[in-house]
Structures are given as structure tokens and as C-alpha cells.
Amino acid sequence: MDTKNKGFDTKLIHAGSYEDQFGSAVTPIYQTSTFGFKNAQHGADCFAGKSDGFIYTRIANPTIKAFEDAMAVLENGFGGIATSSGMSAVSSVYMALLGQNQHIVCSGSIYGPSRGVLEQDFSRFGVQSDFIDTSDLSQIENAIKENTKVLYIETPTNPTMQITDLIAASEIAHKHGVLVVVDNTFSSPYLQNPLDLGADVVLHSITKYINGHADVVGGVIVAKTEDLYKKIRHAMVYMGGNMDPHQAFLTHRGLKTLSIRMEKAQENAMKVAEYLEKHSKVAWIKYPGLKSHPQHELAKKQMRGFSSMISFELKGGLESGKKLMDNVHLAMLAVSLGGVETLIQHPASMTHAGMSKDAREKADITDGLVRFSVGIENVEDIISDLEQALAKV
Ligand code: LCS
Question: Ligand 1 within 6 A of 342 CB?
């Protein structure tokens, strides 16, 4: 269905849906590794790109394509590329856009492995990386070098919730011929469209808000132009990082309720953030929806809501944080985020444990920081769970 001039929710439900011979309401799971050609010429034409036919599921598959097409529509890009995990999306983009003796500038506080794979693995192939506070535009300007090819931004950052001005950051990068890649996992396209704000490539761990049900690991990339789309798809296909049809089916099913899940989650998050901000045992809290957040005004301008991720530290730091995490019952002590269930975790010893303490400190990931992913349960229950756990701290 052509959803071009339709609203976001209509796009969520109908983009990437195609009629088949049975009139299926949703794209079925095409659980097949390969596709037969009509004849030798058809096979040759498929490989030469002269025919649209499917070839082999690592290259493309109807169930995966339906999800990719939906994401391309939702992010206003040329095309989507679904991947086996969020990290596969991140690595495919690095692989496609970086080479020997080339340089990437990244937000300092990004998901630990998105940084680690550059420092520990891409560095072995001569890729150079620098990590800065991209919410400070002068740091971007200063970090760009002659050989810089990519500016990689998370906004809000995981887990420090810093917001980068995407329009201004993209202007600086483009002035120097640098491509802008944005990890939009924390916002989802419901709240923010980086390609509309100047970025060239947007990616997601769909494990989070896009799928939303804590039952699939996956990723997706959306490129703004055909050229970038082809480059990144080539890297993904050759590295073998494709999503599989069952993953794509579940993810596309989860995607359809993104708006209503995100609305409820962020409404809950605002109430939880207000509760924590007033609590006498809380030392500091970062939630973009609070006026106390340093980039609250920017978040209001750039995003259509504030999502449902909160970072905070208790007075008494790590020891108090551990007590809290050991005493919550409704909130699950687990990594991941953006699902229907509330989760709590400790970045310094969990998601960002792979970073050196020095790098964590520079990126404001303190030892006492606790990260809270607010779900869509009754908010009174989430708050009373926190209340009883905080009483034990
Ligand atoms: N980008 C961001 C912003 C993430 O938060 C994650 C995972 C990834 C990429 C990688 O995605 P994955 O391969 O796991 O699908 N973040 C996690 C987190 O904060 N806790 O557990 C996983």
C-alpha cells in the first residue's frame, strides 16, 4: 500500500505490506533459504540486478523486505537493511563507511560494544577512532581531522541521556565532507527522525523499542541515499549479518504497536522521573523530559517526546544502587531496554563494563549510575516497587 501522504500510525500498520496470492493480511514467514529461478536467463538477470526476483535469503527475502520497507518509510530514507542484531547493524555501517587510516568521531557515551568494536577490532585494520561529548558542538569541530569519514552519534546517549543537536552537528560534519550516522535506538522513529535533521544513515537495535517485547534480538539500518544504501547492503550481505525471516516477522509484528507502546512508556517514565527527582535518597537524575536535564529545551525541539529511559544515582553511590537493584521486585534486574516490561541495570558493571574506568569517567558513566527502562505496566506499581526498595537503602 502506498502510505506516502498518510500519518505515522497508518504507516506503522500498512507500510511494507504487500498482496500475495492468498490475500494474507500480514506478510507470511517465507522460511526458505533459496528461491527458484524461472529459467537460466531469469537467474542471470536477478544476479545482474535487471530483475526483481529473490535469490537467496542472506541477500534478500520477502518477509525481511517487508520489515525493511516499513522502516525505510518510517525513517524517511531510501532503503532499509535488516540485520541479525543491533551490533551487526553498527558493524556493517563501520565496515561499509570506514577503511585503513580513516577516522571516526563518536559520542563518548555510546553503547559499550559500539565503542569497543572500534577500539579493539576495527583498530586492528587501521581504523582510528576518537570519543567526545557530541552534545558540545565545539568538540565536534575540534575532533574532525583530514581523514575523518564518519561522525557517529547516539542521542539520547546510552546510558547518560545526553542530547546532541543533530541539525547543527550535521552541518559541521558536512562542511568537512564527513558522513553522519545516528543510532536512534533510544528514541525510535516515533519520536525522532535523524535523516530529516541532516543525518545520512540511521540505525537501531530493534531488540529495544522497535520490536518492544524482549523476545527478538536484531537490528536495522536506513540509508538516506541509494548510493549509501547499496554500499551498506553490500557490506552486510558479504559479512553475512542478515536478519532471518522469523526474526523479521516477529519484529514487524512488534513494530505495529510502537506508537501506543511508546506513548504509555513515556507517560509512565515522566511520572517515575518526577517521583525520583523529589526523592531524598536520589543524588541526581537524567531524564530529557525533566526541566533539570541540561538539554531539555533541545530535546523538546528535536524530539516529539522524551522516551522512557532514565539514569540516576543514589546518595551513597554504587553501594546504595546495588541495594536498590537487589530489592526491586517488579522491575527486572536485566540488561536491554525499550520493552513492555520495566528493567533496571548497572552500566559500569554490565552494559559498559568493557570500557576502561578512565573512559567511563570521561563519558560521565559513574560507578553509581543506575539505568531504568520504564515499561508499560501500571505506573503506580512501578513507583511503589521503587518506594519499597528505596526504603531498604
Ligand atoms: N545501540 C544501542 C543504543 C544499544 O543500546 C544496543 C544494545 C545496541 C546498539 C546493540 O544492539 P543489540 O546487538 O544488542 O541488538 N544495548 C543494550 C543495552 O543497553 N543493554 O543490553 C543491550
Answer: no
